[in-house]
Amino acid sequence: MPVEIYVANIAPTLSDDEIQELFADIGSVQEAENLINQRTQQPKNAMRVQLDTEKSILEISDQLTGVLVDEQPIYITNVKPAEELLTGDEAQELGKHVAEQLNETDNMPVSQINRMVRFAGRAFVETLLDETLQIEANGGMMTSDGSRRRTVGGIFFYLARQRLSYKMQRAIYYVQNKPDNKRKKKVDDSEHAPAAAPITDQETLDEASRELEQLRNELDTAQKYLDDLKAQPAEDRQSGLFSATRDVVNLQKQINAVLRDFPQLKD
Asked: Where are the alpha helices (DSSP H) in 138-182?
């Protein structure tokens, strides 16, 4: 049965034989695609892998997440949040433990931790927590602009963004407060009273704005690359035209999804 997984924190220089060996106990690798940052055109330390296996994504993650490859722990998750990998009391207890270790008490980060536990699973979150605490014990991590040292929670969330696909990030980080449909609120007697704007905290909105800017930059780069391919003779561009078109379409879909979730960001 084909299973598609997202493998993060893994060097893009691994050979096909090394990839096959890594997943030998799981199943047969049908396809392995190293992922490219469309904005920088540099390879990400991540790949999308399709396996022929009888194992579930939870079993694969439990078996391989945390395994050292080139002295770095790899992370296995779904490409998109198709199912919750951990639920019930077990998920609640793990979320509480992680929040305590990170000294996180505010509702937003605690909620993000809980969603990460549910969608990414125990192995992912525990490996991420171990990596975070090790970095903190070794002197911590500075912010991107070098102005200050990150909190231990800041390290955790920063690493998580590097270990999750964009679709998984959206499911974990970019969740807006939805109105309670069970209660009817009388806003105005007019039939055409405007709907209330969705409630979004400023930090989440700022993060979504940065993601939107990056996606638009990646789309510009991908579109220019596609236009260059189309300008070439057919015999020179046939092999890359489909994947370039797919990249443009996928990036536009991601932009539309962000704007759908955050209409405040529309121009």
From this structure: 152-163, 166-173
Q: What are 119's two structure tokens?
A: 């969608």
Domain hosting residue 238, numbered range: 202-265
167: closest CA among 257, 245, 246? 257
pLDDT in tens, 8-63: 999 888 888 999 999 999 999 999 988 877 556 778 889 999 999 999 999 999 99
What's the distance, Cα to Cα, between the start and end of the chain in Å?
44
pLDDT, one tens digit per residue, over 72-117 is: 999 999 988 878 888 999 999 999 999 999 999 988 889 999 999 9
State the Cα–Cα distance between residues 227 and 245, nearest whole angstrom.
Answer: 10
Rounded to whole angstroms, how far apart are CA atoms 259 and 267? 10
**pTM of the predicted protein model:** 0.68
What are 78's two structure tokens? 């779904």
What are the structure tokens assigned to 103, written together?
């000294």
Q: Is 145 part of any domain?
A: yes
163: which 2 tokens?
A: 């270990």
Number of domains the chain contains: 3
Same domain, 61 and 97: no
Q: Looking at the structure, do residues 99 and 147 belong to the same domain, yes or no?
A: yes
pLDDT tens-digit map of 244-253: 787 788 778 8
Q: What's the rounded Cα separation, in Å, for the pair 91 and 115? A: 9
